[in-house]
Amino acid sequence: MKVKKEDLLINHLEAYPIIAAVRDEEGMAEALASPVKVIFLLNGTLSNIRSRINQVKESGKLVFVHLEMMSGLSKDQAAVEFLHMEMKPTGILTTKPNLIQKARSLGLVTIQRLFMLDSLSIQTGIKMVDLNQPDLIEIMPAIIPKVIVRVKKESTIPIIAGGMVETKEEIIGLLKVGATAVSTSKTDLWYL
After folding, report:
1. What is the 8-class DSSP label of residue 59?
2. Do residues 108 and 84 make contact, with C-beta atoms less than 8 angstroms apart?
3. Residues 168-185: pLDDT tens digits?
4. Which has the closest alpha carbon to 111: 79, 138, 141, 80?
5. Model-level pTM greater than 0.85?
């Protein structure tokens, strides 16, 4: 029986719930050497994204591309098709619901990034994920555990807490309130 990509991702996150959020070459080298199983590529260009994706895949880790942060790629469905056909990342993370739908139709694992700024953004975010059914939700900023508790009550989609995570204690607290995983660009936390 073939294991679905989203199940493989959940298994990796259960085994090691810290995600490396990579912004530059130095971070990339550190993430590849670290014990993390999942890497979010948070920057890149059309000229280097293929080699970055290949580096991550060759290291045996899962790779997600944040489309809105890739220079030279449009932020539309054609970019999702291009990534899927030419580079085959594990999946994408995005703030754009229409890209979630396209990526899912292509078999990519999808992560909907939600910025929770106030009660209205929480309500809007929950409606958006209910409608588009991403595989996971990344809630930002992660340092507001009560938002994770509320979204967890209203949605069955696994949650990644991301943004402004700076300590081991914050990671433990976020996992305790129901986050499946925590993404962080703090390299020292990748080794917990």
Report:
1. T
2. yes
3. 999 999 999 999 999 999
4. 138
5. yes
